[in-house]
Amino acid sequence: xxxxxxxxxxxxxxxxxxxxxxxxxxxxxxxxxxxxxxxxxxxxxxxxxxxxxxxxxxxxxxxxxxxxxxxxxxxxxxxxxxxxxxxxxxxxxxxxxxxxxxxxxxxxxxxxxxxxxxxxxxxxxxxxxxxxxxxxxxxxxxxxxxxxxxxxxxxxxxxxxxxxxxxxxxxxxxxxxxxxxxxxxxxxxxxxxxxxxxxxxxxxxxxxxxxxxxxxxxxxxxxxxxxxxxxxxxxxxxxxxxxxxxxxxxxxxxxxxxxxxxxxxxxxxxxxxxxxxxxxxxxxxxxxxxxxxxxxxxxxxxxxxxxx
Amino acid sequence: xxxxxxxxxxxxxxxxxxxxxxxxxxxxxxxxxxxxxxxxxxxxxxxxxxxxxxxxxxxxxxxxxxxxxxxxxxxxxxxxxxxxxxxxxxxxxxxxxxxxxxxxxxxxxxxxxxxxxxxxxxxxxxxxxxxxxxxxxxxxxxxxxxxxxxxxxxxxxxxxxxxxxxxxxxxxxxxxxxxxxxxxxxxxxxxxxxxxxxxxxxxxxxxxxxxxxxxxxxxxxxxxxxxxxxxxxxxxxxxxxxxxxxxxxxxxxxxxxxxxxxxxxxxxxxxxxxxxxxxxxxxxxxxxxxxxxxxxxxxxxxxxxxxxxxxxxxxxxxxxxxxxxxxxxxxxxxxxxxxxxxxxxxxxxxxxxxxxxxxxxxxxxxxxxxxxxxxxxxxxxxxxxxxxxxxxxxxxxxxxxxxxxxxxxxxxxxxxxxxxxxxxxxxxxxxxxxxxxxxxxxxxxxxxxxxxxxxxxxxxxxxxxxxxxxxxxxxxxxxxxxxxxxxxxxxxxxxxxxxxxxxxxxxxxxxxxxxxxxxxxxxxxxxxxxxxxxxxxxxxxxxxxxxxxxxxxxxxxxxxxxxxxxxxxxxxxxxxxxxxxxxxxxxxxxxxxxxxxxxxxxxxxxxxxxxxxxxxxxxxxxxxxxxxxxxxxxxxxxxxxxxxxxxxxxxxxxxxxxxxxxxxxxxxxxxxxxxxxxxxxxxxxxxxxxxxxxxxx
Lengths: 308, 697
Known about the structure:
The complex is a heterodimer of chains A (308) and B (697). Chain A has 308 residues and is α/β, with parallel strands linked by helices. Chain A has helices at 45-52, 75-78, 96-104, 112-121, 135-147, 165-181, 193-199, 217-223, 265-270, 284-292; strands spanning 5-16, 19-30, 34-39, 60-65, 68-69, 81-84, 153-157, 185-189, 202-207, 210-216, 224-230, 244-249, 253-259, 276-280, 296-299.
């Protein structure tokens, strides 16, 4: 583990029965970093989080958090980690105040001001029944309970899941406001790439049980190139190109996405003799979808068949 | 955590309390179906049904409600992530839950006890010890509570090892509700031990993420115990089911009887020939009167007077006399003097208090008590009898013995009359005489058993017959007595004494004598020994006996020997019997049990090695199976951390997913295949090993 790593995952492999969930994942989360953990559903994101938080055993490999083996995290170390699992669970029979009291009992560094500030931000009052809160309010309450102990590491498992855009933005604002002040580390998984793009310093992408990317957001975007080639006739099939993620052929157009493009990529594409060739800037969302989407060639022809 | 669990589940506890209370009061209000239920309250079958099943159900529901709704993945993760030890979470849940369980089960039971103890709700006296069965059921319900915690927390298949928590609880329930247990502390101890085992196993289950090997050693042993007893319960159930399909059982045997004309008969029952009645010479008797089960109306009714006449071995001192199961109503309240049939009142004998108590049947009003010093109305205190009343089975008859005095009870007149007492004369038994089924009532004669004779007395204590013994009472000290309906002839049937070894008894003849009222011996019949075949053994019995647990079987023998060495007469007797009289059976069972368990131990060893357990672990499991037989083998299958095998990517032979190198080709696990689309920058750990990246390309 490097000196400044908060989370250090090494060669983590996990099976459920004979089903491989995560294969040989290694990851290091530096202090103060906001780390986006991306991947399609069922790719092992939550499992990875649960393993480095010590709630599941790794089949092979392992992880450390704050330098401590995640399989045996001490309560004092857990108190330094704020964990917001997906689903925003609260005990429905408690009031908002009781939720806070129940949570505060476990944490020596409970900051009531933060708790109340987040509640106010989400327009929550102490006497509200947790069971009667909207999804967004529940997320706010959970966030308040997670942030109030002033954790050094914040682990959020799809925190915006099921929230409307306003609630999502509120959640993000609160999270950033509180954590950025103290230069805390955040590790969060999400499907909302616009949020990730807005806040993350680095991202890791799990695809097919394997870690496919671990880099800054900019590096990720820059490592993917998307070209649209226009033709007079039906475009030819794509030749073998290193790093080709996918190509999409229509009657007169060929869209190509390539990862880690070689220096001669454009000249090789030019060999296809397109009428025009245009590089397209991608958002993180576009890049991610292209990256984890179906690989290989896809076609769509209006006349139903490909021209010779 | 305590506060949260309490608040979260108190509504269920209150609901359970109301439901259980209703069920228990319903059980109390039901008319009993069995003989002793007619005058039972807290030991009534219907009531005990409600406490047994009710407490178990409350335990299961409360336990599962504390775990399962919260075990949805995110909620459970949030709970486990709290900065406390998992033990703290478990203890918080368990202590709050058990408090809620007692809140749900104790108040309804206390209310029922109060209702029974308060006057005039039942025409039955309340004896404090009657609360024992209910208290035991409440303790047993706690087992189900901890079983539910264990089942909820253990990771695994519901129909796999998880369910065995419930089966272990059922095993204890089977045991403690058995009618053979006499001491109250035994079921309480059994319940506490199993509850402790389940509690510890539940703690172990939450302490780790599912593996056995990471659990604290105490939790591992508890898990083994829980699964083992669960498997045993399954075995018992299988035995019952198999028994249903095995060969129907027939009784084979021969007994001697005497008809009302004073003719000795030999009655044999077998599967093929049915019932055959012969005289002592073996001539078949064709008599319509003996054709059906009503033949007993034409046979004199031999009444056992005492097993211990002479008693040079002091067996009587060890006898509890009225020994009954702690769940039996008759342990606390015994019907007295045939008053069951009276319309207005009932009298009971209370063995613990050694006094009689009467109630008006219609109004439930207490009539009073009768003790050694006579009758006191209402709740007046009487003096207890100095000695136990001996020798009753279903009710205290009108003639009974206490110490060396024989009494006749006339309860409707509120008195007990001493009808026989001779200073310095030991009485070995006293019983009313019965001639046969039709004339049982109204004989008004009793037998008083002395060292050298039996006296037949009438209701005033007048001796109407003296029947001296004519056999060696040390050899034939078990005497039955019968009277001819004409009341002028008396019969004694001498059988081998209780202290003679069973194998010797089988070789000994027995005797019947006919005497007149003066004790003149009119006839003596020597009855050759008969071999009592009993029920034929089935293949299923042979197998199920062979599957007994060697650890307990031999442990019991060692315990008996150790007890004998430490001076316990009871354990010494039991041990000596098994090693002498019962030696054939003891040896046979030891061989069968050892053979079965040795076979299963070999299976366990091969199985363990085949699945790549280390030699040390393999031998440990084989030893475990050797000690616990088939149940041990199943336990091994259910609790061990079994490796999962997949084909090796290099050699295609199976290898465990946890092993870092293949035992066949010694290859490690290959890095994920690189496609050239991976994006790692300088901050990535995957850039720390470029050679791995290059290698995969």
